[in-house]
Amino acid sequence: MTLDEAIEGRRDELIALTQDLVRMPTLNPPGRGYLEICEYLRDRLAPSGFAVEMVRAEGAPGDSDKYPRWNVVARREGVRPGECVHFNSHIDVVEVGQGWTVDPFGGEVRDGKLYGRGACDMKGGLAASIIAAEAFLEVHPDFAGAIEISGTADEESGGYGGVAYLAEKGFFDPARVQHVIIPEPLNKDRICLGHRGVWWAEVETKGRIAHGSMPFLGDCAVRHMGAVIAEMEESLFPALAEKRTEMPVVPEGARQSTLNINSIHGGEPEQEEDYTGLPAPCVPDRARMVIDRRFLIEEDLAAVKDEFRAVLERVAARRETFAYELRDLFEVLPTMTERDAPVVEAVAEAIRSTLGTEADYVVSPGTYDQKHIDRIGKLHNCIAYGPGILDLAHQPDEYVGIDDMVDSAKVMGRALERLLGVEAG
């Protein structure tokens, strides 16, 4: 039996596995159902000879007794020592949102597509990696090396309760693991080499409270924030549009530096929904804005921060009472694996032999868990490859194509053959 035949014979099993995973509402935040899905994966993989560890990220951001951050890591040793290939998938999904025409946790199959929150991002990829590994073990029971499969928490909120925690504990030490494939939904003919950098920060402008009927006795922090935004529109956004990268970032609009205003809050806090009164007449004495700055591998993080601080200083030079604080929230450096890295070449060859096309090399506009494997684990031989269309992630009526899952499983299986040095069937 060839590897392709073993995977095709598991098509219905792949569908059922994906449905089971989608039907577990592992919503993050707050982090529901992590233990349930990790136990499911443990029980699924153990009969195939995987040694399974359940790892709680105690003390990580978000971890609590009510919402513990559970992860599962399964390892299958070969008959002889050799290199290890690790498939890492996150188990969390984002909120459902509005606009669904199907049950978001129903796993409905229709017209060759499997629907549900997380079907595309990335439970379909997780299921495909499991099927690929199980088919590989059937066809090549005497392989050398090791295969690992992990299901990890909190990728959607930074990954600190998942891959970051595991990397700190040595699970991605290059002496233990040599190749990592993250089955994120980036289209079955694409290899994602890495991602842009990110800097999140909070700006607070300060004012003085006063009665709303006499605003001249106060100092409006919201107006100060408005001046900041006006300066951003005047000088910063045009400057960012001029910064271009040689990284193959998709979509095209993300090949420049970008900044998103994530949120603005000023003045009196919003009241509870059942409050029926009017707001009090006050001049707001503070306003806060969270910014999400995505930067390129050609940019220096310190220069990125200085560029934004210069915006604030220009405003300060024009407004006599302007005062502000700038606080770092989160930062990740850009990363990009070389095209001649072993895992890249193995997956590229597998795409060529499976799909009959050359691989398209891309870089993600946003970060994913490769950042922790690279920066904390010091393991650079890492890519993202998996089934699904990235544009469908976090959308209503999210789905993954069944044929795409099967094809991606074949690609993953053939990559295993090359990386673990076995003769293809």
From TrEMBL:
Keywords linked to the UniProt accession: Amino-acid biosynthesis, Cobalt, Hydrolase, Metal-binding, Zinc
Domain Peptidase M20 dimerisation: start-end pairs: 194-318
GO MF term list: hydrolase activity; metal ion binding
InterPro entries: ArgE/DapE (IPR010182), Bact_exopeptidase_dim_dom (IPR036264), Peptidase_M20 (IPR002933), Peptidase_M20_dimer (IPR011650), Peptidase_M20A (IPR050072)
UniProt keyword annotation of Metal-binding present: yes
Transmembrane segment boundaries: none
Cofactors named for this entry: Co(2+); Zn(2+)
Xref: NCBIfam families: DapE-ArgE (TIGR01910), PRK13013.1 (NF009558)
Protein family membership: Belongs to the peptidase M20A family.
Name under which the protein is recorded: Acetylornithine deacetylase/succinyl-diaminopimelate desuccinylase family protein
Organism (species): Pontivivens ytuae
